[in-house]
C-alpha cells in the first residue's frame, strides 16, 4: 500500500509527505462497490490493513509503535535521551480512527491519522526537538458500526463503559466483542480502564474532517472545535406475530413492520417539536426478514442529538410514548433500550485559548458528530481541529476534502503540536 514515492518523501532529510499522497496510498482499501464509498468495520480486513499501513508509516518515521490492552495503537516520538517508566508522561497526543460507517467517506477518521503523520514530517523538517513526548493514537470502533457503541476504544480507555458490557457486545453476525478482539490478539480480560495510558496524555488534539457546512459558510479551511452535541443511541424492539404472508388476513395480523413505519414517522414528528433536535432511524432489522414472511420482531436503532441533554432526554421520552402507542395500535409489544449516551461536551477552554493563540484568526465551531475527543475530554484537556468539507456531506461517499485544505490542516496541526510540545 505504501508507494516508493511515499517512502522517499518521508525519509530523513526529505520534504514532508503530503496528506493527499498518504490518502491516495489507502484509497483502494475497504472500498464498497455495492454501497459506494468505504466500509471498514473494526477488525475487518480493511481496518486491519489500515492499521498495518499506519504502523508501517509510523516506523518509517522512526516512531515507536505499540498496541495497548484496548486495541488502541500508539506511535511515539520520544523526547531524545528520556528513559524510564515516566519518559512518556505528559505527552501531547493527536490521532483519530481508521474504522468507518457502512458506505462512508474517505476522510472521516483517516484524515486525522494521515494529517498527524504529515505534521510529524513538518516538525522534523523544521528541526523540531520535542521537549514533551508526542504520540499519534488510533482508536478502534469509533463509529460503533460493528458492535453498536461508538468510541468503544476510547470509552474503554477512559472507563466510560463497563468492560463486562463491552465484552458482551455483539456484531450483526452474533460474534461477541470479547471473541473478536481475542481473535485479533487482545486479551478480553484486560479490556477496560487504563489509568496508566490515560495518565500519560497531557493534552489530546484530534483533527477531523468537518461533517457539516460551518467552514463552507465561513469560507475558511480550518476551525477549532468548541463542543460536541450530546447524543445517544437507542434500540427500539417491536414484537408481533410472525406468520405466513399469503394465508394471514390483513385484519388478523400483528405486524411489527407496520408499527415500525409509524414509529419512524413519530421520530421525525418528535424531532420537529423542539428546535434543533436531530433524530434519525438509520437502521432497521426485521426478524426473520423474509419477503413472504410477516415479521415476528423488528429492531430499529434511533440516534438522538441536542446541545441540551435535558431536551435529548425529553425527546427520547416522547419517542418512547409514541412508539408504545404505535405498537399497541398494531397489537405489538415494544421495548426501548438505551445503548449509549454521551452528554454534551465542551472542550477545555484553556487548551482552546492556547490553540487560538497558535492559529490566530481560526474560527471556532461546534459539531453534531461524536468523536473520541469527546470521550477523552471528560478525563484530559482536549481540543479539536476541523478541516473544510466542500460538500458539507459526511457518513456518505460524497464527503470530501480539497488537497490544499488537507495540507492547511496538517500545517495547523504541526503548529499546534510544536506550540504545545
Ligand atoms: C460518529 O461519527 C457519530 O457522530 O455518530
Ligand atoms: Mn470520525
Ligand atoms: Mn463518523
Ligand atoms: Mn465520529
Automatic annotation (TrEMBL):
InterPro entries: Amidase_Cbmase (IPR010158), Bact_exopeptidase_dim_dom (IPR036264), Peptidase_M20 (IPR002933). The keyword Cytoplasm does not apply. The keyword Iron does not apply. Pfam families: Peptidase_M20. Keywords: Hydrolase. It comes from the Bacteria. Belongs to the peptidase M20 family. This is Allantoate amidohydrolase. It comes from Arthrobacter halodurans. The lineage of its organism: Bacteria, Bacillati, Actinomycetota, Actinomycetes, Micrococcales.
Amino acid at each position: 500500500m505504501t508507494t516508493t514515492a511515499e517512502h522517499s518523501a518521508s525519509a530523513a532529510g526529505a520534504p514532508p509527505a503530503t496528506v493527499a499522497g498518504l490518502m491516495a496510498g489507502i484509497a483502494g482499501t475497504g472500498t464498497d462497490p455495492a454501497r459506494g464509498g468505504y466500509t471498514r468495520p473494526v477488525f475487518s480486513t480493511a481496518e486491519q490493513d489500515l492499521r498495518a499501513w499506519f504502523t508501517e508509516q509510523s516506523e518509517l518515521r522512526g516512531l515507536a509503535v505499540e498496541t495497548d490492552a484496548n486495541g488502541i495503537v500508539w506511535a511515539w516520538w520520544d523526547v531524545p535521551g528520556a528513559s524510564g517508566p515516566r519518559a512518556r508522561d505528559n505527552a501531547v497526543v493527536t490521532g483519530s480512527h481508521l474504522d468507518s460507517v457502512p458506505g462512508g467517506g474517505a476522510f472521516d477518521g483517516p484524515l486525522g491519522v494521515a494529517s498527524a503523520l504529515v505534521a510529524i514530517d513538518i516538525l522534523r523538517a523544521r528541526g523540531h526537538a520535542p521537549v514533551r513526548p508526542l504520540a499519534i493514537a488510533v482508536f478502534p470502533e469509533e463509529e460503533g458500526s460493528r458492535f453498536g457503541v461508538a468510541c468503544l476504544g476510547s470509552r474503554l480507555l477512559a472507563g466510560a463503559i463497563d468492560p463486562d458490557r463491552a465484552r458482551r457486545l455483539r456484531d450483526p453476525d452474533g460474534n461477541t466483542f470479547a471473541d473478536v478482539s481475542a481473535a485479533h490478539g487482545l486479551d478480553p480480560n484486560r479490556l477496560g480502564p487504563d489509568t496508566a495510558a490515560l495518565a500519560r496524555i497531557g493534552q489530546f488534539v484530534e483533527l477531523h474532517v468537518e461533517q457539516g457546512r460551518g467552514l463552507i459558510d465561513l469560507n475558511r479551511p480550518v476551525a477549532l472545535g468548541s463542543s460536541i452535541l450530546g447524543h445517544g443511541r437507542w434500540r427500539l424492539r417491536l414484537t408481533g406475530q410472525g406468520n405466513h404472508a399469503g394465508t394471514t388476513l390483513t385484519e388478523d395480523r400483528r405486524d411489527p413492520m407496520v408499527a415500525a413505519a409509524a414509529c419512524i414517522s413519530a421520530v421525525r414528528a418528535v424531532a420537529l417539536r423542539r428546535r434543533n433536535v436531530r433524530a434519525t432511524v438509520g437502521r432497521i432489522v426485521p426478524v426473520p426478514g423474509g419477503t413472504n414472511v410477516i415479521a415476528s420482531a423488528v429492531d430499529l436503532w434511533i440516534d438522538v442529538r441536542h446541545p441540551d441533554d435535558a431536551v435529548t432526554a425529553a425527546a427520547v421520552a416522547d419517542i418512547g410514548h409514541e412508539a408504545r402507542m404505535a405498537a399497541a395500535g398494531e397489537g405489538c409489544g415494544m421495548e426501548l433500550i438505551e445503548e449509549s449516551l454521551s452528554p454534551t461536551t465542551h472542550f477545555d477552554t484553556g487548551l482552546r485559548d492556547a490553540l487560538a493563540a497558535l492559529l490566530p484568526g481560526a474560527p471556532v465551531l461546534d459539531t453534531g458528530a461524536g468523536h473520541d475527543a469527546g470521550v477523552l475530554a471528560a478525563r484530559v484537556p482536549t481540543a479539536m481541529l476541523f478541516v473544510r468539507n466542500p460538500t458539507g456531506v459526511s457518513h456518505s461517499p460524497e464527503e470530501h476534502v480539497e488537497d490544499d485544505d488537507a495540507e492547511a490542516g496538517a500545517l495547523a496541526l504541526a503548529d499546534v503540536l510544536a506550540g504545545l510540545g
